[in-house]
């Protein structure tokens, strides 16, 4: 039976939403592994809008996370608040600053961060049902907030981010972009992707391994 994976997006664009390459690589790997997927995102306003040409904030602009994420999903996307965890065999969350700005406020609050309540509801339901979860790039920073004290993850080798994860109760393991870290007990798989990757091929190496392991565990 074909496995169905929930993919939670956080907008569209590395600086204020979901990282586009990571998201597309995730969807491609799922399809190549013979799985189906459903993209979803919270129907909320982005923290802010960034000009991806200059890197500067555009304070006059407002954008919606679900509407922006629909660009990545080619319109085939649902509101996270309406998603039923029982319909899915696994969950994967690509990175991009949207994970730390829209799905959580880790980008500004660090170890004092909180997570979007719809994401908490969905991710914890998946986890409590014994289904695996994959988190990519900066998304693993939410691991201890979603899955509890002692949860193991990686964001690569950034010391300050790793320290924040451990301050929230998580355990961090350094990892290169072509590898994955697995919390076998909690069925959590993480990879650094563009936290360390120098190009799309390097990001793909770790993401492909993550997708394969998530599906193996599901």
UniProtKB/TrEMBL annotation:
Keyword Lyase annotated: yes
GO MF annotations, alphabetized: lyase activity
DJ-1/PfpI domain residues: 15-142
Record keywords, A-Z: Lyase
Any Pfam family hit: DJ-1_PfpI
Keyword Metal-binding: no
Catalytic activity, reaction form: glyoxal + H2O = glycolate + H(+)
Family named by the database record: Belongs to the peptidase C56 family.
Entry-linked NCBIfam families: PRK11780.1 (NF008747)
PANTHER family xrefs: ES1 PROTEIN HOMOLOG, MITOCHONDRIAL, GLYOXALASE ELBB
Job description of the protein: Displays glyoxalase activity, catalyzing the conversion of glyoxal to glycolate.
Protein name: Glyoxalase
Native species: Amphritea japonica ATCC BAA-1530
């Amino acid at each position: 039976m074909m496995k169905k994976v929930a993919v939670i997006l956080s907008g569209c664009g590395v600086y204020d939403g979901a990282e586009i390459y990571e998201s597309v690589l995730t969807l491609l790997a799922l399809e190549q592994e013979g799985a189906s997927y459903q993209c979803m995102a919270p129907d909320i306003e982005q923290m802010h809008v960034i000009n991806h040409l200059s890197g500067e904030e555009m304070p006059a602009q407002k954008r919606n996370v679900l509407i922006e994420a629909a660009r990545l999903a080619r319109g085939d996307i649902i509101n996270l608040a309406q998603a039923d965890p029982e319909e899915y065999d696994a969950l994967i969350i690509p990175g991009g600053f949207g994970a730390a700005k829209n799905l959580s406020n880790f980008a500004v609050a660090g170890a004092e961060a909180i997570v979007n309540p719809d994401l908490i509801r969905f991710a914890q339901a998946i986890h409590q049902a014994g289904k695996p979860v994959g988190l990519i790039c900066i998304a693993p920073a939410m691991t201890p907030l979603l899955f509890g004290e002692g949860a193991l993850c990686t964001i690569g080798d950034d010391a300050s981010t790793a320290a924040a994860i451990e301050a929230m109760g998580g355990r961090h393991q350094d990892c290169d972009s072509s590898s994955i870290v697995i919390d076998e007990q909690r069925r959590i798989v993480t990879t650094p992707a563009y936290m360390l990757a120098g190009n799309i091929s390097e990001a793909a190496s770790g993401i492909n391994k993550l997708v394969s392991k998530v599906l193996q565990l599901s």
